[in-house]
Each structure stands twice: as structure tokens, then as C-alpha cells.
Amino acid sequence: MKKSKTRRPFKKALAAAAGFLAALFVFIPALAPANSRFPFVYAAGEPEGNGAAVEQPVIENAKTAYVSCLETGEVLFRYNPEIEVYTTSSTKIMTAIVAIEALGDRLSEKVTVTSEMLSEVSGNRLGLSAGEEVTVNDLIHILITGGDNDGAYCLAYLVSGSVSAFVAKMNEKAAAIGAFSTHYTNPTGMHDDGMVTNVTDTALISRYAWSLPIFEEAASTPKYVMEATNMSDYRNVYNRNCLISKYYDASYYNENCSGINAGSTPVGGHCVITVAKKDSLSFLIIVMGADSTDEVIYSYKNVLTLVDWAFDSFEMANVLFEDRMICEIPVTLSSAVDYVTLAPSETVSVFLPTNVDIEKEITYSWQTADESLQAPVKKGQSVGKVSAVYKGNIIASCDLVVTSDVESSEFLYQLNKIEKFTRSKGFIAAVICALILSAGVVLFNAYRRKNRGIF
């Protein structure tokens, strides 16, 4: 165990340094690499001299990949994070964001599909017809759950009146989110040389979309049942993401996956974006620009590799334990004990690699407000702070509390009161005055005796 103390001669220097660091930390998140907060995360191809403890996964036949923890925001793996790729089906994530934010309070409203809305539709489609009456909620699920392009175009016209105006909103939203390397030219992802992004931007956009409850629900639904309309019987809208729906290909199904998007174009390749959840952790996982053969779609294969890697490599681990002794502190005014033990006020879990040896690799630093305690002391009384330290980084902190009650001794308590009284300024002044008065009396009596001839 380690105990941290601040020596008085260095307090001014430390205060100045703390002020400088506080200002510096405002800029660090924007300047530092995404893996700089913890020493166990890094991008593929980056040097491993930063103490990385987790072996990186292998990506096959794909241009770029990404893994982050949604709970902590930590980027755990990056493969070609800045390489430019076509947006392909991920375009529909931004289409959904703009549509949901514009129409989210109108889900039950019925709208009429027009021939103009369907005039530019190509690729995947549900088969909406001009004159058909559908709800906004239907269109949201046609777009997100089914990945159907007629839903995308209907929403574009409904929100903005034209495709060009809607696409302008998509690009404005991308910039607002911070996806500055992303550009859209249509709301579906059908190939256009100007439709580009990178996996870092795609992660920002996906995380934003996942925060919208309507999006999360629609993207995680294996099958949406669309009620009968004025022109059609009810329709089943199956999710095109094979991680969460077995309708198109059951071989890639994974019970831990939810959403977000999957699809491909001949030029841009295959793209899969998903959230994998297990226990208390969820990971955002992306593979873009992947190849395929008659036997394998590498976007799915790589995503499943990354899902297993994330669950095997990371966990929420307890690093501070309630009632586990950290140190002792002297206690005064008790006839029963001279010391009392201190422990963390609560059990604290943090995100760590599964191969970290908690007992050997986690150390503790603590500081108490006083060098000793005076009885009576109550169990749970906070007397300082304790931190868990991993590879030089503070990864968790909480209050340091007393683990048991300590009663005071009445005799020692009274003695202490007497001692405090005898040390008080008033008592000392009274003693000094008494001494001065006594000395004055002695001198005065001596003077009188002398004058009377006694001496």
C-alpha cells in the first residue's frame, strides 16, 4: 500500500502546477489520441510501448474497423480510423436522425405517399405506392428496421419538401455532431463518389443515433409488423441486419447484438454497425468497406470476431472494496484502542482488461484530513479519500471511512479538558498575572520591611 502526503514546503509549487494542469486538461481531450486515457487501449498499427495489456484482434478483408465502450466512451480498438470510405448503408443512420428530430412527435400521424416521393427510389424497397396512407412511425421502421429506400425518400420529402433540402440538413447535422469528414449526396447510401466518411465519424453519428429511443427501438427490432393501409394488407418488415434477425441469413445471428445498421453497395463494400451488450457492458462495433465471397460476408465475420474479443478482453472489475482495510489512524481519548482501521466507503467497479491481476497490479493512495482522530468515533465516519491506481493512473476514488465505533473514556476526556484549559490563552494569561501579582506583593513587602529597619 502507498500513502500520499503533501509536504508543506511544496504547497505553493503544487498549487501553481495544479492550476496549469487544470487549464491544460481543457484542451487534452481534443488533442490527445483516443486511446490515451488508459494504458491498455491502442489502435491497430500503433506502437505497443504504451504498456498495452490487451492483444489486438485481426481484421480480415475490410478497410476499417472500430470498437468502443458505450458506458465509458473509451476507444478500445481502431483499424485505419481515418481512411476514407463510402458511406453506403450507414447513410440511413443520419437520415433517421434528421427525420426523428423533425417528426418524432408526429409518429401516429398518417401521411399520403406521393409519386414525387417515389420518383428517385432504387435499390432495396418495401413497395410503397403513390396514394398509400401510412403513419410516420411506419416510415421510420421502413427506413431503420427494413433498410428500405422508399421509406428514406418519403421521409426526406415529408421533412424538407425536397431531397436536396433534406440532404443539406443531413450534412449540417453531421457537422454539428463533429463528423467533419462525412458528406452526403442522397438519403439512402446508393453509391455516389461524393458520399464519403471514415469510421471515426461513423462512430460519432452512430452513438448519437443510439441515444434516440425511437432509433434504438427500430434498429433493434427483428421484425416490424406494419398494419394494413388503404392500399395493402399488413406487411412484415424484417430487419436486414443478420446479427439480430435470422430472416435473411441465420448464420450471423448473435443474441448479444442490437442494431444499428447493415448493408452494402457494389463499390463501397459491406458495412455493419452494431451494439453488443453483455452484463453491464455494451460495445459499439463497426466494420466498413468489407469484401464478400459466396461463403463469407467479411463485415459480419469481423464484427463477430470483435464482439468476442471485446467480451473476452474487458470487464467491469471491483477495485475498491467496502470494509476492506486500507490503513490505520491513531485515536486519542479512548482507553480501549489506540488505533482504528479505515476502509473505502463503497465498492467501486471500473472498466479494465480481464487479464489485470487486481491483487497485484492495483495499488492504493490515500490521504486523511487529520493525523489522528479523537474519540468518540462512529463507524462510517468519513476522514479522507482513497484512490485505486493502475499503471500510474488513478482509476477510481471514494471516501475513506472508519470501520468501527470507538467510545471515549470519561476519565481521559476530563483530563483532556483540563489539559486544554491549562493550555488556553486565558489560563496562561491568568497564571502570568498571578505570578506578576505575587512578585509585586513580595517586592512590596520587602520594600516595607527595609524601610522599617527590619534589615
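the 2nd protein, sequnce then structure:
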Amino acid sequence: MINLFNKKRIYLDYASSCPIDKRVSFVMRETNSLYANPNSIHTLGVRVREKIEESREKIARIINAHSDEIFFTGSGTESDALAILGTIEYFRSINGNIIPHIITSTIEHPAVLENCKLLEEKKEVEVTYINPDKDGIINPKDIKDVIKDNTILVSIMYANNEIGTIQKIEEIAKEIRHYKKHNNKTFPIFHTDACQALNYLFISNIEKLGVDMMSFNGAKIYGPKGIGVLYKKRNINISPIYKGGGQEMGLRSGTENVSSIVGLAKALEITELIKEKESKRLIQIRNYFINNINYIREKTGYKIILNGDKDARLPNNINISVLGISSELLVVELDAMGIEVSEKSACHSSDENSSYVIKAIRKTCSKNKEEGSVRISLGRGTKKMDIDYLISSLIKILNKYKNFKKS
């Protein structure tokens, strides 16, 4: 039997999770002796609290926020849930006779979509889902057009986790501010899921970005898993979504995970330092593959589609559909050749893993039952030679199945 793990592995699934940076691991290990409860007033407890607050201040400085606007959670998913559910719960507590309205998009992360749907199913909110254009971009004017008197929250992700498209967050924020100013309104609040964006996009001045709340996590920035952040502007009120010991300024109960908090702060610091240089490097590698799509088509005869805008996408994201072969089969075959990528099955599939994002940008699904999407996400360890191997591997796999179908 062939031992696949003896082969060199090429990891191209950084959008799912990143390895922990060695510098992050080092600062996390330094906190191992700080086991006391940070809410204790004895000496060791105070030292733990100091580590947490130093990390909070570091994150606040990086995004140009106040330290009391940074709240630690257990994940990016929890940060999204706290932003959405907390906003609605607070609004209902002061305006119980009004049904709140949420605006989001059809291509948000499930952490946003599923919580909106949960509230909708309970008949606690109205939700308007904005469709993107064929390239996966949300038009800010489309959001402006559906804001109404009871619109309480707009939640649009900074960059899509599947197809990598970058949304015009500053323009969306401008439309919301314009509405509020001209209608003398406090709402809607603007939230963005920035989990995929932090490695590559602008976050160094949260005021300029224009959002009221922003969610992100450690796993996507070469930090620890199981830790997230919700940035919440000082003048924005939300309610906790569960009760407990009242940690995180009363908004998120539960003893803080000091090691992961310190690790996340360090990971964000490193990310900001290398962001510009790393983005330029990955754009070159990304475009090298995209420019070779026609070459793969010519060599195999398969129709290959690039999903999402070619330019307004994350530096590390490539998402393709290969018509006539299932995405799951492609991922398995690539894995056998030592290449790790991720997939979503065809948009009309009943499979829970099917891609609603691809469905949204295609408007109608292909009749090809074997169509799906493969996400190739690059990272700090990716080299151009890895892409050369990926291209040659795809050609071998596709030709193998083309010949198999002929026979």
C-alpha cells in the first residue's frame, strides 16, 4: 500500500485554517505559567489580567480603535453571532413593538446567514438578502435602495470566504451614513465579517473603514484557533446573547483564554507588518495560475471557469469550476498527488456542502451534474513551484478522466 504521507504535501487551503506562526507559539508558551483566573484580585490573577489588557490595547492600536471597543470571543462565528443577535436583542429591549429589519447578502458566511435565518424563522426579524453581480460583488446602491424605517442592521462581509471577492465596505458605510444623516436616524448599524480580510486588506483605521462592528479570528491570521474578536464602536449598544460571570465588560461571559488572546494579538501584529509585501507576492502567484487557466483548457479540453472577479479578489484566492468532473473527485485526486485544496459541490446539489455562493453568482445552475467549485487558497508557505506542480497535476488528472470517459 502506498503511504501518501511520505510524499511532500503542498498545502493550498489557507482560507480554511493557517498554521500557527512560530513567533505566536512562542508568546503563547510564555503564558503557560499564568493559570490564575484573570478576575481574581491576588497577584497572579492581576498578572493574567494585565496580559489580557495589554493584548486588547495592542489590537486596538493596530486598528486605531479604543481598547474598550475590543471584545474577545471564542471564534469568528461567535463574534458574528454576538453582533447580529446582540444588536437585535438590544433593539427589541427598547422597541418591543417594532419588528426589526436586517440587510445582508446571499453570499455571507454561514455564521451570518444562519443567525439571520434563525431570527427570521422565529418571526423576530425581517431580512432582505442582496444578490451579488456575476462577479460576486455587492452594489452599495442595492443596499441603499432597501434601507427602510425599521432597518436596524446591515451585515456585509469584507471579503468572501469561498470566491475571495472584496466588497466595497467604505462605499457601503458611506451610503448608510448618508441615510442616517438625512433621516435623523441612529440605525442601521453596519457590521462586517472580516475573518478572511485581515491578512491582506485595509484595517489600520477602523474609523475610515466606516464600520460600527467588525468580526475576526485567530485561525485565519496564523494565530490560535478558538479565539475571536468583536470590535464594537463605543456608541453602539448591543446585548449579551447569554448570561454568566459578566466578563468582557458584561458582553461575553466566560473565563478569558489568556494564551489564545495573547497569541491572537501577536498574530495580528505580525500580519500588519508583512501585509503589503506578502499581498504583492501572492498576487503574482495567484495571477500566474489564473493566466494559465487557458493553457489547462487547451491541454485537457475541459471548460474551466474562474469564479468571482479576477481583480477585486483576495491576493490568495483562486476559485474554479471544471465542467464535467465533480469538485469532490478533483480534491481527492489532488490529495493523492500531495496537494491539499477544498471544494464545494454543484449548486443544485442536495448535499449540505453545496455552494450557495456559486449559485448566487451564476443566477441559474448549470445542467452539468458534475459541476462544483474548487478553492485554491495560497499562504505564507506557497511558492510559484507549488503552482507549477498544481497545474501539471490538474492536467494529468483531467486527461485521465477524459480518457476514462472515452473508453
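The radius of gyration is 22 Å. The chain is about 40% helix and 15% strand.
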